Amino acid sequence: MTSTRATMLSIVLLVLEMPVGEGASAASAEISQRLHTQGTQPPPGIVQARDYKITNFQYNDVNWESEKCAKILFVRREGWGAKDTKNVNYLNINGGVKLVFYHHTEGHECNSTDVCAKILRHWQEYHQETKRWDDIGYNFMIGGDGQVYEGRGFNRVGAHTLSYNNMSVSLGFVGNYTFHAPSSRMLAAAADLIKCGIEWGKIGPDYKLYGQRDANYRDCPGDAFYALIKTDARFGGRLEPYIYTPPPV
Predict the structure, then answer these.
(1) Is 60 domain-assigned?
(2) What pLDDT is attached to residue 51?
(3) Number of domains composing the chain
(4) Could you tell me if residue 47 is inside a domain?
(5) Are residues 25 and 100 located together in one domain of the fold?
(6) Do 155 and 92 touch, CB atoms closer than 8 A?
(7) DSSP bridge pairs for 170
(8) Would residue 48 count as lying in a domain?
(9) Which regions of the chain are under pLDDT 50?
(10) CA–CA gap between residue 249 and residue 236 (Å, rounded)
(11) What's residue 238's pLDDT?
């Protein structure tokens, strides 16, 4: 038996021996460590945290293994099966954007890469084919699995908040957060992404945080989520101009 097959067999046995629930995270950690030791790579498009002093993952003007970015589980567009964008308008603001918008996508939540990817492909198709946008509207999406999914990224103008697309970054939380807020795992991923953006000059250190309803006549990002956003020290409140255009049906 080859060393690789022996390693994989030992991992399977480890999972079978571990009781369900309690101890499952320990098993996952040991499996991850064994795979890392054997040099097994994560799925294409998924960037896992590593020692930023040893490796250097530079992508779209951001080193995703720098001090502030290394904790992020970042899924690039190819990792969730995104289609090509139809057109690109670049977002280039000296010192970074001063506005960060939290949105919810509505619809289903997700807790795995496969499910999140399927949902995001649906939203991209809807945005491109039905709404005739160039791409999925958000700059980034946050899955219930705690991963950050690349949408338009830090460098491209989004299509998410009327009158503010060219001066802000949007984070779309996958799911509907009218009756409950996103999980602490999702919120932590978003906070880490903002810190990363500040480190690389994509978000200004004096940024303010908003829900879409602070700028547009919308329910987004849902009542429960918005109530939580209002408690954040960075909360900016209602913006002017405020766009009263009725939401699409």
Answers:
(1) no
(2) 36
(3) 2
(4) no
(5) no
(6) yes
(7) 101
(8) no
(9) 2-43, 47-56, 249
(10) 28
(11) 98
